[in-house]
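Researcher: Go.
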Amino acid sequence: MLKALYDYGIRNSLAIPPGFLRKDIRAYICLSADGSFIGIEQYERDSQICPDIGSLANGPDKCNPLAEKASVILAADGKKPEFYRSLLKAGAEYDPNLGVCLSALENAETFRAICQEVKLRKVKDGDRICFKVDGVPIVGGERVQDWWKEYRKRFAKGGNEQQDSMQPLCLITGNQTVPLATVPIVNGLQSVGGHSRGEALFCFDKSAFQSYGLKKSANAPVSEEAFAVVKDALNDLLAGSPAMYRREKDRDFNPFAPTFSGMKFLHWYDCRVEPEEDLILPELVGFGQEEDEDEDEENAQMQISPEEERAQERREALQQREKADRLILDFGSGEQSAVLSSQYYILLISGNNGRAMVRRYEHGSYETLRANLDQWREDLALSNGLGTDTIRPYKLTYRFTRLVKDQKKTGKELSDQMKKELAGITPAIVAAIFNGTPLPDAVAVRALAYIRSKMLAPPPKEGSKKDRRFANLPDGVACQWLKVWLVRKSRMRKEGTVLTMSYDREFPNAAYHCGALMAIYADLQRAAMGEVNATIVQRFYASASRTPTLVLGTLERMGEVYLGQLRKEKKGLVKIYEQRLNDVYSFFGKDGFRQLPAALNLEEQSYFALGYRQMCTQMNADKSAAKAAKEEETENGRN
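Model: Structure:
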């Protein structure tokens, strides 16, 4: 992993020399070459690569050189101001401009003028300031860098006697090195449990972590230069890997590192890519905003007009054709695209009490990644609520909301809930997606719990904005989790039958068809009775999904009552419902998988939920088709 990060930093020229950090400067004290004070230049933030002394600046007697807080540089006395001026004096031997700055601070009249101007400009004590001499920041000169590379060595702690006789090999580069005694901290993990001061990527502060008499980071030796590259690579990845993408300057594209269940999701390739060539971010995260957490899958589907759907299909077809054309041109010219032979890398990382915790690390070939993501999309395929198309794509962050218990929470509360409940299974889910392997069983347990909690909600009343065709329809995204879990378990066992996206009347699983029967009886109740205080779903779904034998007899008797009611008011529907019930009941028998099950295990409960949903979507599709046929017949009659 360290070598992959190091290669990323070198490949994208992210390395900053050891002993330097990129810092934002808020104001400059401008001097002429003869030391005359010119004025103060203020900036919102001017980024510069500055000398840095590390954690020593937190002590009582040392500070960072050249760029520091105004309260340090402009203090009349004190250990930190004295140390700052001693650094200017030492650096003046390399760069005379540092001597100019020191003279300005030691000249009482000039120093007083600087302080007055700083106060007038309302520069805060905590603002980082620096000097400019003849309009050039003193931190940017090559002579200053040469000076600091040499001068900072006096702050380094010497190695032990064993290391003096034989230097160890750097874990990153493989070269002999004097290892860092303490590795620099990594920033950017505050939103995922990190400390404001940063996290150590690895450390050995307990005796249990040490071996062979080695102290601290000598147990995992890395050179200062190599780890500086790793640190800069992590900083770029935590910012969304902007250095990885090739793109036009005027293009509106803002990559970001998403958060999954309290972990930062970082990914990169071993070459630079166009945004369109990145398979991971748009597939699992997307480039836009998150979906509305209160928006359900069925309502989102209803908001898209047929014209918009057709336009979206044309755009997707055009994009696929352009990709295919690029591949053909690559092979026709004899030059294969670099992306096709590249490697991908994925890192899940969080912070914990000052330590960076690597939760998961994955890497593999681009072609394998593409095949596994295609398999993920295929396994997810499930009919939408209308039964007319597949459920539209959703981001992985949104899918995770179907695996938490309390859905009343939104925003930060929901994010904290996901972090608390899903941190243990998120790495396994990510690994399953990118490797094409089965999902953990906890996914099915949580998805089923979510479905049952939603099925208890009362159906929409007459006049409600919600479509009654989706009343008590199991959540589509939760059912997609179940489908992927079941399909991959079946594939692992090398079973021949696979769940399809729509209802399959011949599917060899009794629990699946028990769910379909439950859906028919629920729809029959709505057709015969309209609004009721407690629906069949609210009363019996939970028990039917566990012990169908005890419930289906009751549902059958209630179904006869509902059919009798329809014979009085809607005779045309009786035949339709009887046909549906007979088609499903014809599956059951006395032998093998056709036996009516007495109790359902976790896998069978999942099949029950999917059978219920797929029968609901099938009935909705049949109703829409019948309505369209009737309208067409009426229109033809008019003509």
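Model: The two ends are 72 Å apart (CA to CA).
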